[in-house]
Amino acid sequence: MRVRIRHEITQRFAPGSRNLSVTVRLTPRPHEGQFIQRWTLDLNSDGRLHPLEDAFGNLCHAFSVDGPTDHVTVVAEGEVETFDTTGIVRGTVEPFPPALYLRETSLAHPTEAVITFADSVKDASPDPLSRLHALMVHLHETVAEIEPTPTIMPMSAHDALVAKASCPGGLAHLFTAAARHLGSPARHISGYLAEDDEGTARHWAEAYVPEIGWVAFDPGRNLCTTENYVRLAVGLDAFGVAPMRSTGFECRESVCAQDGRVPTRAVQSQSQGQN
Amino acid sequence: MRQAFDEMSSTNGHVRPAYETLKQWLSTVPQDVLDHRRKEAEYIFRRIGITFAVYGEQNAQERLIPFDIVPRILTKDEWGRLSKGLEQRVKALNMYIRDVYSKREVLKAGVVPEDLVYKNPAFRPEMNGQRVPHDLYVHIAGIDIVRTDPDTFYVLEDNARTPSGVSYMLENREIMLRLFPELFSMHKVAPVENYADDLLATLRSLSPHGGHEPNVVILTPGIYNSAYYEHSFLADKLGVDLVEGRDLFVKDGIVFMRTTEGPKRVDVIYRRLDDDFLDPLAFRPDSVLGVPGLMSAYQAGNVTLTNAVGTGVADDKAVYSYMPEIIRFYLGEEPLLPNVPTWRCREADHLKYVLEHLPELVVKEVHGSGGYGMLVGPAADKAQIEKFREKLIADPGNFIAQPTLALSTCPTLVEQGIAPRHVDLRPFILSGSDKVRIVPGGLTRVAMKEGSLVVNSSQGGGTKDTWVLDA
Question: pTM (2 decimals)?
Fold first, then answer.
């Protein structure tokens, strides 16, 4: 499938701000399931984009804005050809061995509730892949997916579990925290979901299965990723995949991802705070 | 516990040669004169404002660290052995950190277990594959040393993040010179005053690019930090700017300092700020103490951070227990300074032993410091031991245990006169791109309470001037 994406982020700053530093994580890398046909980044200011790669192999850009200004806008736009790999993710840049992805983070912290939740599928199967599927099903049945809340980071694993409802980012935190507790390396993925005439930014998870490799699970939709998914960034949690990091106070995102063959355009907007 | 080795009187009561003159002098000076000088020293400390705040206390008010006027003396030979061992240790620490963030040979060889690195909160994935200027990570190390007999010095702890205390080492010497000039004329004491020059030379040698005179700054979290005095003291001694995060900014991968004459490029940052707070774009997004974009400048190789980011992966107490193997692995040498035997509670058989011997052991948190969260078995009552046992069983990986060492004692002026008190030693090791520099001595910390083994200033410990005799 050919997916067209337009992702615009505007970060607000106090009026008259000077010497601002911004990092964006807005450039997808290819893997066996996706081929980047065209990708551009645009700034509303005259800053120069310095490409860099973060620790997890994500393509980032750092730039400075002299100011004075009260906002910075970045637009990422491009086309990605995707293929269905039944959720198996191969051909990615892997700076770390899977064992690193057993690390705990504050957003994917195994609290007692998370541990109890994870342990309930511990004996579902001796096979790690089946156990991870059982975890996804159990998560899907326990915690409902809701629209992302504006202006905050995704919920933590614990909060998502307790609230029994969470945005996809919170579901991914819960999935990764539980999978790690069960001994499977797991990580947080940001990207896009293109479906017919509607496209969104989305978070999901990947878990490592020996002899197969990394497998992508979207617990909110109870499936392994398909050709409708475009993978943007990987990290230990939502902090690690944040599309923009800076010191401003309000961040507004608008994302449009659509099947390149469908001529209509649908735009979905959401606000997401970085701080 | 067996009787501790006293550095002046040995265990058999014979005065050791290095202390002969001091002992004689002490016996001729009346107690009230000593008391008077001690008060004078306290007055000077108070006047110069060298205080610290204790975290976790309700009115975290500024406190004076007790200063003991009786110096601690090491011979040239003892120091020679110590400094060789320290240099070896810091060399291995640097090689270990470099490896952990690049090829990870030490993990592949199974010398250190993977999870101790990957699951370590102090491991910074952001540093993976990142070359640092001159391949040096720990430029300023504080290695804590304890002694149990005339010949045995143990490393008790490595401090590879932002070790503090050097201002006390320098102030203590200055005050001793003022109060007891006669003692210095009777001994040939190696100077420590050149520490500031050594530190500046080290920092300058670490500049990411040679050539012009690099601009060095000290980055402090601000006046509320317990070590703020030291930050401003060092900036003053080095003649460099003391800055806070808001004084710096990053433009196109280069760090600048705001000055009245416009932006000035910064080459080396001696940062006294924890990793977590360094850059809100890379680490804690709520940090207002750091410099946005600093990590991207660091990644671009345009600035040196001293110490490097992520050095904590080498100095927690679990990694400590592997240091002898780490030294052998990288240097192919036997450690010149031994470790204190350590049980790793993460290992089942070690945990079993520890749980069975709690009343005899010292149990510490892997990431603890400042003497907090530790159990000194012989000094604890039953209830404390049982409470600790529960903590230990709940999270064994978080603890290590060591035998209760009979730390050496040094003569110390207390209310009843001169009496032995337990001491340790923190020498400071500077690793520059040109060479390693260690000023003779370091900071001697002393447990002022009789019998106490806890020398941390937050727990009522004091300090002493440390003399290395030149002849």
Answer: 0.93
